[in-house]
Amino acid sequence: MLSDQLFFHIHYCNHRSFDDKERPPRKINRTLSHHELILFTGGSGTIAIDKRHYSIKKGMLCYISPGLHHTFEPEAGPGGFLSVHFSCAEVEWSQNQWIIHECTKQLMKKLGKQLMDAYEVEASFRRLTDCWDQKRPGYPFAARTLLQQLFLAIADNVRKQNQNFASSLKVERIVDYMQKNLSKHITLNELSELIRLSPTYLTRIFKESTGSSVISYFNQMKIDKAKELLLDGDHKVKDVAHLLGFADEFYFSRLFKRSEGISPIDYYSKNVHG
């Protein structure tokens, strides 16, 4: 699952469409030091990434991470593609300071995937390349935002293609139930009964879908709400803990510090009084 703490820098975007009369793009044989995402809008041929071969056709999405050798061999005939070249860093707020790591790891599990009903993904990709081409004021920031939206569109498409789509809907139902019951103490057994799945199976599909355990996810939702309540300035730490279903004020404070790097009192003092 793509991290929600990534900051993108786009090197450039490209798009190409060609018909029978035009020469197809030349053969490419290279290794990049940054990431590349390609969506083929038509055509034929092959693309090889890290010795794995994929057929070029409409809806084929390819991801190339830094350092992976790849070749692109298009065949004559109509076709086209959309691409974006980018670098990224993982930005983390910890111990009251920003920590930045360059991200060269593989962002997507599969290097090549044939998307079904890829209309939304293609539309999102075209918004990105159009933004880059037009170069209107503020386009670098807008393009980074559109790249994030593109990754969300891809994730949504892949999720719908997944055989466990029904399970994904159950996870969404669990998250919605959590959101409506932030003031309560909810158990794993309670959630399992809600969607009629065993606790073990629920734990597995929830982790696959969100990257977190059920309880960790729920606690983070509570911490996010706690920050909102603290910044309102009308609640003491003990009151906030009680409003969010924590019987133990000190346990709540430990969870808060583990998430934000500082205690609830320090968070209030720093953000309200400066």
TrEMBL record:
InterPro entries: AraC-bd, Homeodomain-like_sf, HTH-like, HTH_AraC, HTH_AraC-typ_CS, RmlC-like_jellyroll. Keywords: DNA-binding, Transcription, Transcription regulation. Coiled coil: none annotated. Pfam families: AraC_binding, HTH_18. Residues 172-270 form the HTH araC/xylS-type domain. PROSITE patterns: HTH_ARAC_FAMILY_1, HTH_ARAC_FAMILY_2. GO terms for molecular function: DNA-binding transcription factor activity; sequence-specific DNA binding. Signal peptide: none annotated. This is AraC family transcriptional regulator.
